[in-house]
Design goal:
The chain has about 350 residues and is an alpha/beta fold. It is built from 15 helices and ten strands. It folds into two domains: about 60 residues; about 280 residues, Aldolase class I (TIM Barrel, Alpha-Beta Barrel), CATH 3.20.20.70. The strands form two sheets. An eight-stranded parallel β-sheet has the order 7-6-5-4-3-2-1-8. The chain has a two-stranded antiparallel sheet with strand order 9-10. It starts with a helix and ends with a helix. It binds S-adenosylmethionine and iron/sulfur cluster.
Length: about 350
């Protein structure tokens, strides 16, 4: 009896040992298999070489950077202008304007890539063909492409009432640039043509915007000539949907440097001066401030050839044209900072239907 109990105990211990050994062996086998799999995967083999390791890291980092969506695009269709603002950072270096069918093709490519808002700028966008070229593109973007938002930024001096009659219904927002409510300051800046009054034009266009139901916006560049001004009363009177207030920006090759057509150094204001202007106007609810930091890389800018302009180096370096290489390829060279675009409030209620305006 004693012997039989001892045999049973020995048998039990033996079984436990075998089972333990089996489990240890199975673990070892599993680990070995997974190491072998990793070791012989194409990625691991490639990573064995230092050059390949760097390439993989670069590929991973590129994959992490998502291609930005061109939801809001600024198309500077011409560089020509009838004004001579001394600080201007988009100067008349060429007189080229795309044929209209090519411009439309580019706009369609942008729509297919995700564009929701187009802003036409320049130079003076009403300069070419007395505003007809611009009007046809505005109509095309709203009627054919059905973009939620179509806008223009203009100095306001070349707009006629007939233009509003013909194209006003296709336009969501018209921004008129006004840097001062003092005509002498406008003359000093160069925001004028001959003896014509910039402010008369501003108020005339403002009333047409109401009449033809286009949302009215104002852009002001804060520079050494207007930094002390108090614009509160005039802005309240005009009551724009948005008042963009820019700190005067310097771009090498445009308004600074040897190859530039302008020298804007004397217009520059520092961050403290700009902030003092903002503080003075803090009660104006529609004010949207844009310091140099916010402005530089947060716009998708297309030039007259539909090339994205990369401002990261303090210059405007062009990509290839979207008409030649497509939007997805060209946008990689735009320098566009999508996060800053969102941070500066680049997405807002931009269709006039959604603004619920009291015309
Ligand atoms: C280049 S302009 C073209 C459109 C039109 N000619 C006008 O003046 O509104 C587009 C916008 O850029 C602004 N701008 C021009 N030069 C600037 C600069 N150096 N810094 C900041 N904004 C500037 C203009 O005041 C305008 O609101
Ligand atoms: S109006 Fe002034 S800011 Fe606009 S493009 Fe002409 S010179 Fe430049």
């Amino acid at each position: 009896m004693l012997l039989s109990a001892q045999i049973q105990l020995a048998h039990f211990i033996l079984l436990r040992c075998v089972s333990k050994l089996q489990s240890i062996f199975a673990d070892m086998l599993g680990t070995a298999c997974s190491w072998m799999g990793w070791l012989f995967s194409p990625r691991t083999r490639a990573a064995g070489h230092p050059g390949a390791r760097a390439a993989l890291a670069e590929r991973d980092s590129r994959a992490a950077q998502r291609t930005p969506t061109p939801s809001s695009v600024n198309y500077h269709l011409t560089r020509k202008c009838n004004y001579k603002c001394g600080f201007c950072f988009h100067t008349a270096k060429t007189s080229f304007v795309l044929p209209i069918e090519e411009a439309k093709r580019g706009l369609q490519l942008l729509k297919e890539a995700g564009m929701e808002k187009i802003n036409f700028s320049g130079g003076e966008p009403f300069f070419h063909e007395g505003g007809e070229f611009l009007g046809k593109l505005v109509q095309y973007c709203k009627q054919d492409l059905q973009l939620p938002s179509v806008s223009i930024v203009s100095n306001g001096s070349m707009i006629k009432e007939g233009w509003f009659k013909k194209y006003g219904k296709y336009l969501d927002i018209l921004a008129i640039s006004c840097d001062s409510f003092d005509e002498d300051t406008n003359k000093l800046i160069g925001r004028t043509q001959g003896r014509k009054s910039h402010l008369d034009n501003l108020f005339k266009v403002h009333s047409w915007c109401r009449q033809y139901k286009v949302a009215f916006k104002i852009n002001s560049v804060i520079c050494s000539f207007n930094v002390e001004e108090d614009m509160r009363e005039n802005i309240r009177q005009l009551n724009p949907v948005r008042w963009k207030v820019f700190q005067c920006l310097i771009i090498d090759g445009e308004n600074a440097g040897e190859s530039a057509l302008r020298d804007a150094e004397k217009f520059v204001v520092d961050d403290e001066q700009f902030q003092a202007f903002l503080d003075r106007h803090a009660e104006i609810q529609c004010l949207v401030p844009e310091s140099n930091l916010k402005m530089r890389d947060s716009y998708l800018i297309l030039d007259e050839y539909m090339r994205f302009l990369d401002c990261r180096g303090g210059r405007k370096d062009p990509s290839k044209s979207i008409l030649d290489v497509g939007v997805e390829n060209a946008i990689q060279f735009s320098g566009f900072d999508e996060k800053m675009f969102l941070k500066r409030g680049g997405k807002y209620v931009w269709s006039k239907e959604d603004m619920k305006l009291d015309w």
